[in-house]
């Protein structure tokens, strides 16, 4: 089940909203949370259930029941992860932190490593040594990268006494909360636990629904109307490169830019929908996306792109490695190590490692430039040039992120650097229009956090380094309601042809 599917839009979401608010009003706060946790696990389980070959089962035999457990193995894995991490957190409070914290981190990293990197490691060992280590072919559990990191963050916060282990179902809801489990944001436990535990909170239903559905409508439109419309132009370029053809200069840049815009509107759309769905239920998630293509440097880019992942890597990897405390050389090494591992987190392939390494190199150069380069480079009209250069760099790096093979990435880069002539083949007028339209939206309009700054709490704005500025702002009004309804209508009309979100594969 995905946010842009009909079963989610017309069955799951209305049912959850109705059940949650009725339970809060007529039963109890904790009953409502328990039902929300159950709904979140159902949302996650749907991924397995909808794809399972149930027709292969032979009645209600013991063997069939055991085989049915394999069909839903991923949700059982999630439940097991929740149980073990909850127990470890409880024991940490009783017996002390350090040994148990290490055990908990090893468990979560081991789980992630086994399912995500075991086959990657086996294939590389086989290639280097000539051995024939069999690959397991287990398949990647949905969102394992996200919930593993979130569990680690939770254990660290418990160890640092930044949060307290609560009720089991509250912990289960923290991990599985359906607006964010699949693709983030990565939430620190104390950010949401205080909201879950607030039994005295008075929900303004219409305020929550007004803000939440407006955010959801904008996010759905980004995904369905823009990202899905641009996707064919990006896919055609990369497919051509994988077939062995090298695109020309113009075609390569248009295709790579199309993918840069596709992933922008895809991930931005998901992030908006996550914020909106949580707000419909009265909860506020941290902002995860804030106009990254308006960045004038790679440092600024990572303050705007996947903000919560950037914070996680900074707090749990970069700073423990030493951060910037031991001179420029050590900082550069720490940055490279952090981004290489961040790239590997995104996918078990060397192309992701190269993508992370390029960003590590960009961050390093950025810091050296800020220290020894000309002052005022990012101010005034020079900022426009800096934004263009930053976007060009990120677009080149996206090639490795999207390409299926080294050779495919190499052909596209060869085209982008002019080694295959001018090359207009494959560049249609529709492609030019969509790329120009996408860039226009990205660079001229405020991103969603800026647009909704007045209804986002101050701490969230501060954490995401969002500085509200005068201009176009969302307001409760008849016009805003009509606009949101119109976007929802157009998006639903086109939802039948949409695909999964890009970050669902990580």
Quick one: how many beta strands? 0
How many H/I helices?
20
Distance between the termini: 16 Å
Overall radius of gyration: 23 Å
Integer tally of domains: 3
Roughly what fraction of the amino acids lie in strands?
A: under 5%
Sheet with most strands: none
Helix content: 55-70%
List the helices and strands and how they pair.
Elements: H1 6-26, H2 29-49, H3 62-71, H4 73-95, H5 98-129, H6 144-159, H7 168-176, H8 189-196, H9 205-242, H10 249-280, H11 298-304, H12 307-318, H13 327-346, H14 350-372, H15 381-402, H16 406-416, H17 429-444, H18 448-451, H19 458-463, H20 478-494
Helix pairs in contact: 1-2, 2-4, 2-7, 4-5, 4-6, 4-7, 5-6, 9-10, 9-16, 9-17, 9-20, 10-15, 10-16, 10-17, 12-13, 13-14, 14-15, 15-16
Short précis:
With 506 residues, the chain is mostly helical.
Features:
mainly alpha; 506 residues; single chain; 3 domains
If you had to describe this structure to a student in words, what would you say it looks like?
The protein is mostly helical. The chain folds into three domains: 6-202, no CATH class; 206-296 and 378-505, no CATH class; 297-377, no CATH class. Helix content is 69%, strand content 0%. It is built from 20 helices and no strands. It has helices spanning 6-26, 29-49, 62-71, 73-95, 98-129, 144-159, 168-176, 189-196, 205-242, 249-280, 298-304, 307-318, 327-346, 350-372, 381-402, 406-416, 429-444, 448-451, 458-463, 478-494. Helix 9 (205-242) packs parallel to helix 20 (478-494). The longest helix has 38 residues, at 205-242. It is globular. 43% of the residues are buried.
